[in-house]
Structure to design on (400 residues):
């Protein structure tokens, strides 16, 4: 009998691929899929289009140079007449994000739509004069698009005007670009503070004896064993006007008891708390690099006549740059997306863009705008990494 065909033996490459399948599945389900859903949510707007189908069709060719014709008025009356009360409430709340006052206008008109008579281009404005405003119809056209860029425009303080052109929002509403700028500034400042504090600490860890280095490492890693919420709350107790820090300053005579310093619920509290929380992420990459630098290099530089600072600047510092770059990149990216610490100790002046994203997701329920803000933040972080890779080379980084 002929031999049965043998099954091919998996190669090492195939075996390695099989071993990584669980990791790839985990990344797809818990990383790629949520990001994809967020990106889709930022441009998807299915509810208004499904509730006002005739209006969407009637406004499809409207150029927004004047009020729409009778067909548009008749279409929206027919759509509103067919709406249930709960659907009218959902539609009004959704359109109200684009134009304040549309919620009450939609709900009121939906209740009375059955009493209106043709021609609706006359009876509808007579019922409520807002139906004779071009900006109302422009908001309805924009708000009923199944897919839209309005959320991304809003994320950079732009909007569609009454003629459907892109215009800046009012000065009082222009807050998102300011928050993006504040977030980048805070992240950069926290990174510099962590570098200033972490560099000498990492040097002590790398050059101390085994026992001393072990104690220092335990103290450095101790915050990882404590809840972030607990650590942030502890800073409130330390920094408040009647807290430990102010009590010590009063006891030392540096400030008067009636002039205690406000160190929390402002930008100062945000910077202090975030620096303490993110400091280990700067120290560990630095330590991993410094530990591999032989001390003989500095002794050799000294033997050739270099003073200690010159030896540090010309020999030691350049060798630690991979750790500096890795720590700075890690701390900056983490600081850009921080939420809990600014929310608890930042007050109104210490809030970052992440806090506003959470507000839209959890409170205002404007998920499209929240997703757009998060997408812009993600794109900014990716762009930062690409620029950093171009200038410094990500392959030179040392994280551990």
């Amino acid at each position: 009998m002929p031999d049965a065909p043998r099954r091919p033996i998996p190669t090492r490459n195939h075996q390695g691929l099989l071993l990584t399948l669980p990791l790839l599945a985990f990344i797809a389900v818990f990383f790629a899929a949520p990001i994809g859903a967020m990106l889709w949510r930022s441009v998807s707007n299915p509810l208004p289009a499904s509730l006002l189908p005739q209006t969407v069709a009637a406004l499809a060719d409207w150029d927004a140079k004047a009020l729409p014709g009778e067909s548009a008025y008749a279409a929206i009356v027919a759509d509103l007449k067919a709406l249930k009360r709960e659907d009218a409430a959902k539609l009004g709340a959704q359109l109200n994000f684009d134009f304040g006052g549309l919620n009450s206008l939609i709900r009121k008109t939906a209740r009375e739509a059955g009493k209106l008579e043709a021609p609706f281009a006359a009876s509808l404005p007579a019922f409520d004069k807002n139906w004779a405003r071009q900006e109302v119809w422009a908001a309805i056209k924009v708000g009923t698009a199944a897919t839209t860029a309005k959320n991304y425009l809003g994320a950079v303080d732009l909007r569609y005007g009454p003629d459907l052109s892109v215009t800046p929002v009012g000065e009082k509403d222009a807050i998102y670009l300011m928050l993006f700028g504040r977030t980048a500034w805070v992240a950069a400042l926290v990174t510099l503070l962590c570098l200033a504090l972490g560099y000498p600490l990492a040097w002590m860890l790398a050059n101390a004896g085994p026992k001393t280095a072990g104690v220092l490492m335990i103290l450095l890693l101790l915050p990882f064993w404590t809840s972030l919420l607990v650590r942030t709350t502890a800073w409130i107790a330390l920094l408040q006007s009647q807290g430990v820090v102010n009590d010590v300053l009063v006891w030392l005579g540096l400030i008067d008891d009636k002039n205690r310093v406000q160190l929390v619920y402002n930008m100062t509290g945000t910077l202090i708390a975030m620096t303490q929380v993110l400091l280990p992420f700067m120290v560990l990459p630095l330590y991993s690099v410094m530990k591999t630098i032989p001390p003989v290099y500095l002794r050799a530089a000294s033997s050739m006549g270099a003073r200690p600072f010159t030896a540090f600047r010309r020999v030691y510092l350049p060798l630690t740059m991979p750790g500096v770059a890795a720590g700075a990149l890690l701390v900056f990216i983490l600081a850009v997306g921080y939420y809990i610490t600014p929310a608890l100790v930042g007050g109104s002046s210490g809030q970052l863009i992440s806090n506003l994203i959470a507000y839209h997701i959890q409170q205002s329920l404007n998920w499209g705008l929240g997703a757009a803000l998060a997408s812009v933040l993600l794109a900014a972080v990716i762009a930062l990494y690409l620029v950093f890779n171009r200038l410094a080379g990500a392959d030179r980084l040392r994280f551990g």
